[in-house]
Amino acid sequence: MTDIKSNFEKIKQKLPDNVLLVAVSKTKPVDLIMQAYNLGYRTFGENKVQELREKYEQMPKDINWHMIGHLQSNKVKYIAPFVTLIHAVDSFKLLKTINKEAAKNKRVINFLFQLHVAKEESKFGMSCEELETMINSDEYKELKNINPCGLMAMATNTPDKNIVREEFKQVKKCFEYFKEKYFKDKSDFKELSMGMSQDYEIAIEEGSTMIRLGSILFGAREYPKK
Ligand SMILES: *Cc1c(COP(=O)(O)O)cnc(C)c1O
């Protein structure tokens, strides 16, 4: 049995006040997630559109649902009516679609740019340079229904803590560059979503404001994560 209460309490004790815990509930059943809800947690992360949508429909409406995984443009419409934050915006095409679907729902959708820093080819995201080109384009400036709140990144999956730390430092550096140059007067641009079960402590030391924890809270997942 997974002891949800003690898992959440252990993490909570270690969290600085400015760091939000996003409880990653992917693959986990509603009754288990409800245990966390009943402890007072209201921010949950999912990485698949259909699962996110189903859980949103089944669970209390005061939950803040974060889409943390890779998102395909053609699926944005299913979550646009309710999603609180989209973590992994990794292309201009996706961002334009989010803007369009947000407008249809008369919403402004909060999102994070996903920065690619990991060594693995498979991790999505843009480089700091690509991001800057996008932000400077006229087309970007016309998007009125999106609200950039910061950066998200995933570090390389490696036991070498130095590599992980270096990558988080890179994210922080890019964040500070953007903050200073483009978002100085924008108070919402303040989030750094980095850190998972295996590397969240390093992420917090390097300036994370949102950690995305799954297995350490809810137990190992039955099928491997993508
Ligand atoms: C699954 C997932 C997590 C959580 O992973 P754990 O190792 O279980 O903490 C965090 N971020 C993303 C994008 C994920 O897909």
Structural overview:
Strands 7-6-5-4-3-2-1-8 form an 8-stranded parallel sheet. The two termini are 25 Å apart. The chain has helices at residues 4-14, 30-38, 49-58, 76-79, 92-104, 128-136, 138-141, 161-181, 200-205, 215-218; strands at 20-24, 43-46, 64-67, 85-89, 109-115, 146-153, 191-193, 210-213. The protein has 10 helices and 8 strands. It is of the alpha/beta class and 226 residues long.
Strand and helix layout:
Layout: H1 4-14, E1 20-24, H2 30-38, E2 43-46, H3 49-58, E3 64-67, H4 76-79, E4 85-89, H5 92-104, E5 109-115, H6 128-136, H7 138-141, E6 146-153, H8 161-181, E7 191-193, H9 200-205, E8 210-213, H10 215-218
Bound molecules: pyridoxal-5'-phosphate.
Residues 24, 26, 47, 68-69, 196-198, 212-216, 225 line the site of pyridoxal-5'-phosphate.
The largest beta-sheet arranges its strands as 7-6-5-4-3-2-1-8
CATH superfamily, called what? Alanine racemase
Estimated radius of gyration: 17 Å
CATH topology: TIM Barrel
Please write the CATH class name.
Alpha Beta
> Which hetero ligands occur in this complex?
pyridoxal-5'-phosphate
**Helix/strand class:** alpha/beta
Summary tags:
eight-stranded parallel beta sheet, TIM Barrel, binds pyridoxal-5'-phosphate, globular, 10 helices, alpha/beta, 40% helix, 226 residues
Give a brief rundown of this model.
The chain is an alpha/beta fold. Helix content is 40%, strand content 18%.
